[in-house]
Amino acid sequence: MWISLIVLLFFSVWAIISYDFSAVVSAFAEADWRLILAAAVLDVFLLYFRVFKWRFFYGAYKKISFYNMSLAAFAAYTCNNVIPGRIGGFVQAWLLGKKESLSKSTALGTVALIRVMDLATLAVIALVVFLGMDPPPDKGAYWELFKKSGSVLSALVLSFAIVLFLFRKNKKFIEAFSRMAERIAPKRYKASTGEIITLFWEGFAVLNQNRYLLIIIFLSFTFWGLTACSILLVLKAFGMENIQFLTPVVILLAQAMGFMIPAPANIGPYHAATVIALSFYGIGGELALSMAIAMHAVMFVTNILPGLIYLWFENIKITTITREARRELGAR
Fold first, then answer.
1. N- to C-terminal Cα distance for the chain?
2. In this predicted model, what pLDDT tens digit does every residue of 32-57 receive, in sequence order?
3. Distance, CA of 249 to CA of 36 (rounded, Å)
4. How many Cβ atoms are within 10 Å of 134's Cβ, its own excluded?
5. Contact yes or no for 104/93 (Cβ under 8 A)
6. Distances (CA, A) of 301 to 25, 97, 199, 226, 297
7. What is the pLDDT of residues 248-294, one digit of tens each?
8. What's the whole-model pTM score?
9. For the chain, domain boundaries
10. Nearest-5° angle of CA 80, CA 39, CA 310?
């Protein structure tokens, strides 16, 4: 938590020193708020789209209530934005397991696989962009750094996804991994570690269902395409014209790299990554920061409001679900 707060403080000082916030306010005053609202509506649609995609991860063995999946997913997004430590994945698994009487470890396995699939498809997009796109004019050095770091991260993610897929049916690998985990687990968890890993691995069952797997891959690429469209709407809201086809995609990739830096609600790293990506296209200063703030605000509001509404309707407290998720799934 302290690291996140230090990161937040660092980027806050950077923004205060580097930018004239009166110019930022002026940029907001001139923005087309209809397009920003359209981006927010699209982001809400994408929340439900992600839940729709998540259902296919259970297609291998069980049908799950769309409402309960929405509740679990939206609560997770809310927790990720208001609770330090990015505990959302554990909350998502715990809440769905409780509502549907599922193994929470298996639910956590599906949540983990979702992250892997999303990152793997984004990595494919990144490699295509980095290999096929010419560096922006006068930004060659910065682009090369961005390209190299992005390519390395993408290659690592894809390698992990490929290994996961290749070993999906290898019982010896799972047994060896379970034995290793049992050896290093604290004494009080040794007896249950093997069972937890087995149940967790059941969440990967969809990897053995080619039909569902292909649908999920298609939906993952579609999700990232629609996310880029949301970015495009904000760019147009601030008067950016003649936008290249890949511009929103490059910004999306930069934002994804920014998410790797821990900070409360990703405030700071997200904005810095967006500003850097916009600089490739000659947009800098207060206008770039204004766009970054608008994109983050749209994402933040649309990620926490649905979760708060669902939790209020179910009379569930955030403190309760985070405490229980930590207790039962070992989140820290």
1. 10
2. 999 999 999 999 999 999 999 988 87
3. 18
4. 7
5. yes
6. 19, 26, 34, 18, 6
7. 999 999 999 888 877 777 788 888 889 888 888 888 778 888 899 99
8. 0.84
9. 2-59+111-167+222-320
10. 45
